[in-house]
């Protein structure tokens, strides 16, 4: 069985992303090698993944303690973060220890942030089990949790030592969660690769049985790795890693104002991508036809293109002001100069942003 490999190279580290099918024994091999060198290993997962991957967890035996957190966005919290840290201490991880994050973006962000913080940083391996985590969150080292003021407002950049993306795992994914992952794939096409968007437009990817998934995951990892390799910590004065935030200034505000978990991350980003397209059109970069095209691709991947129920514009605007891209009080937005080429803009007319919220169903 062939395994594809994408290498992420940052200033301080380089690590492989293994993409393939039935990678369980390859991962077990790496765990055994680490343990043979004296590393203690502790795994963090969530309740759904623990059940869906019961056989693989059983194969770990008693050698690897496992913490199972409740499934869902609300686990990216300060209190759950504390529980993971207590678990790592109880598992007697020392500075040579390794944390395994086995799950979707929630587990990856939470366990990754615990690995970044515990003993001021221990190694971790990402084992993404959702489409979203395979194409996006397991790559690039952003880790963190939410606070009531905003999404991902607390966290650290901490790169994993390896990523294992086993496409077989996607077979148990609920359709709504699968669609949520496709939002980040659409985003990658919009921001950097028009050919990817063409492919999605011609033939949408709507379920885990799609045979193109292995190559699409690899393709997306390459897109994300290329952006991260150039600007790991999002410090570029313009463009750079911030481009991966296309649709997110809007999307994160929706997640926060609606209440974490009400919209899946990808659902909020679906609306956010349409909003970013509308903003790009209003600023004269793309045409109305391009916006219609984005709307169609988002909708054909079973994602919302507008809010399910009106949310208050004032609260959405307030949430946006806490976005991490804000500089000197000014919200920076990511727009498309054309499909496949994104850019950051240094300021935007707030009346225009309010109007875009209105067009997305806010009031
Ligand atoms: N760090 C980053 O760069 C980055 C990038 C994108 C998104 N994110 C974050 O990722 C999170 C969303 O990640 P997500 O969409 O993976 O959500 P998630 O982790 O909540 O997983 C989605 C659901 O699917 C279940 N699940 C996971 N794997 C499964 C499987 N193989 N079979 C059946 N069910 C399974 C989970 O239990 C959960 O209920 C958000 O918090 C978002 O902010 C982070
Ligand atoms: O990796 C990145 O950089 C991204 O922006 C990817 C996003 O899809 C992801 O949702 C990320 O967590 C957002 O980061 P944030 O810094 O805006 O919280
Ligand atoms: Zn995202």
UniProtKB/TrEMBL annotation:
Its EC number is 4.2.3.4. Keywords: Amino-acid biosynthesis, Aromatic amino acid biosynthesis, Cobalt, Cytoplasm, Lyase, Metal-binding, NAD, Nucleotide-binding, Zinc. One of its GO terms (biological process) is amino acid biosynthetic process. It is found in: Cytoplasm. GO terms for cellular component: cytoplasm. Binds 1 divalent metal cation per subunit. Can use either Co(2+) or Zn(2+). The keyword NAD applies. Its cofactor is NAD(+); Zn(2+); Co(2+). GO terms for molecular function: 3-dehydroquinate synthase activity; metal ion binding; nucleotide binding. Pathway: Metabolic intermediate biosynthesis; chorismate biosynthesis; chorismate from D-erythrose 4-phosphate and phosphoenolpyruvate: step 2/7. Zn(2+) binds at residues 184, 248, 265. NAD(+) binds at residues 105-109, 129-130, 142, 151. InterPro entries: Dehydroquinate_synthase (IPR050071), DHQ_synth_AroB (IPR016037), DHQ_synth_fam (IPR030963), DHQS/DOIS_N (IPR030960), DHQS_C (IPR056179). Residues 181-326 form the 3-dehydroquinate synthase C-terminal domain. Residues 67-179 form the 3-dehydroquinate synthase N-terminal domain. It catalyses: 7-phospho-2-dehydro-3-deoxy-D-arabino-heptonate = 3-dehydroquinate + phosphate. The keyword rRNA-binding does not apply. Catalyzes the conversion of 3-deoxy-D-arabino-heptulosonate 7-phosphate (DAHP) to dehydroquinate (DHQ). NCBIfam families: aroB. Belongs to the sugar phosphate cyclases superfamily. Dehydroquinate synthase family. PANTHER family: 3-DEHYDROQUINATE SYNTHASE, 3-DEHYDROQUINATE SYNTHASE, CHLOROPLASTIC. This is 3-dehydroquinate synthase. It comes from Pelagicoccus enzymogenes. The gene is aroB.
């Amino acid at each position: 069985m062939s395994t594809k490999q994408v290498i992420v190279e940052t200033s301080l580290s380089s690590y492989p992303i293994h993409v393939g099918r039935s990678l369980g024994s390859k991962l077990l091999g790496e765990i055994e090698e680490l343990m043979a060198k004296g590393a203690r290993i502790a795994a963090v997962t969530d309740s759904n993944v623990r059940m869906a991957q019961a056989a693989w967890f059983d194969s770990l035996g008693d050698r690897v303690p496992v913490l199972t957190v409740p499934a869902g966005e609300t686990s990216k919290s300060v209190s759950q973060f504390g529980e993971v840290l207590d678990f790592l201490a109880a598992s007697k991880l020392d500075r040579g220890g390794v944390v395994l994050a086995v799950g979707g973006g929630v587990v990856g962000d939470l366990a990754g942030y615990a690995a970044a913080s515990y003993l001021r940083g221990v190694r971790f391996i990402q084992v993404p089990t959702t489409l979203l985590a395979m194409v996006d969150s397991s790559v690039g080292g952003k880790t963190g949790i939410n606070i009531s003021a905003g999404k991902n407002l607390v966290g650290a950049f901490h790169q994993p030592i390896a990523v294992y993306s086993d496409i077989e795992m996607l077979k148990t994914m609920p359709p709504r969660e699968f669609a949520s992952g496709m939002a980040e794939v659409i985003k990658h096409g919009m921001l950097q690769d028009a050919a990817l968007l063409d492919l999605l437009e011609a033939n949408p990817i709507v379920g885990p049985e799609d045979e193109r998934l292995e190559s699409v995951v690899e393709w997306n990892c390459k897109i994300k790795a290329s952006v991260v390799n150039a600007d790991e910590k999002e410090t570029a004065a313009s463009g750079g890693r911030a481009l991966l935030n296309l649709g997110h200034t809007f999307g994160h505000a929706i997640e926060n104002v609606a209440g974490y978990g009400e919209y899946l991350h990808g659902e909020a980003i679906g609306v956010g991508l349409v909003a970013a397209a509308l903003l790009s059109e209003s600023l004269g970069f793309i045409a109305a036809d391009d916006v219609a095209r984005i709307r169609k691709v988002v909708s054909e991947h079973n994602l919302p293109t507008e809010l399910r129920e009106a949310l208050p514009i004032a609260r959405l605007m307030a949430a946006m002001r806490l976005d991490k891209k804000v500089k000197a009080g000014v919200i920076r937005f990511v727009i498309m100069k054309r499909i496949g080429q994104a850019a950051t803009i240094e300021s935007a007319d707030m009346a225009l942003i309010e109007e875009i919220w209105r067009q997305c169903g806010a009031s």
